[in-house]
Amino acid sequence: MTLGISSYSLQQEMNEGRMSILDVMEWVKLQEAGHIEIVPLNFDLLETPELIEAINEKSQQLDLPLSNYAIGSDLLQTGVELSNEIERIKAHVDIAHQLGLKTMRFDVGFLPPREATIVRFNELLPNIVSACQEIADYAEKYDITVSIENHGYFIQQSDRLITIITKVNRDNFKLTLDVGNFLCVDESPLYAVKKCLPYASMIHLKDFYYRKTKHPLNQGFFSTINNNQLRGAVTGHGDIPLPTIISMIKDSGYDGNLSIEFEGIEPCLMATDIAFKLMTSYYE
User: Which region is the signal sequence (predicted)?
Assistant: First the structure.
């Protein structure tokens, strides 16, 4: 296992224009991280293909491995829109290959809590499975393992994730396992991580403050699927039992990468620095 940092953790700096993805890579190297995960939220490598070469050159210059390529996508569409989205994801698989990566994550899609029902899941499951199979089969020619992640309310519960993965039934189709995101659907992280570890190709170490109250708390808090309150925390400072989870990961035999993923309201450079040092101490 190798501990690194997701570029998503520094999204505050990139959104404000203070850092580019290349600047983020330099900062991550200064933290002595083992790798960087590339999450293209405020840049698009389809639209700026010259940045692919720049990222590769920076990776080599810094001796900073790239670990995973994580894009947003929506497979909950139908007809031509779904076909177009599958083709767009395949184009990003090509980019993952150009970056020299062997793992890539795409999204199934988001639904608001009221619509993220098991009835709706069962209705959309055949289309989701078919789309994921097509993408996995395309990625197989590059020996790339593609994955979905537990987020977006709709595909966040451990049982739904495992159902999709087993029905897709491809050796190169797995899970980007975010240890914190299960709280968004009020599922025990300990219980869910243990169930999902056998399917993981990438792990995100994230933390939340979790409050069992129906009253909105504002100031960075948002509602879970059952209207409890969550706020992103410095990884290791929140309510998720990360020392126990990291021990569980180590005992499982998982040998892939782990990324710090911060999405709180604290200044992201400080928060990510603290999180990486703390998780390194747990990891060792």
Answer: none
Q: What is the pLDDT of residues 37-62, one digit of tens each?
A: 999 999 999 999 999 999 999 999 99
User: What is the rounded distance in angstroms from the CA atom of residue 268 to the CA atom of residue 7?
Assistant: 11
**Helix or strand holding residue 79 (H, E):** helix 79-98
CATH of residue 60's domain is 3.20.20.150
CA distance linking residue 211 with residue 224, whole number of Å: 10
Domain that holds residue 103: 2-206+251-263
Output the pLDDT for position 216: 79
- The one-letter amino acid code at 31 reads Q
**Mean pLDDT on 125-134:** 98
**In total, how many domains does the chain have?**
1
- CB count in 10 Å sphere of residue 53: 11
Q: What is the layout of strands, in order, in the sheet containing 207-211?
A: 207-211, 229-233, 222-223
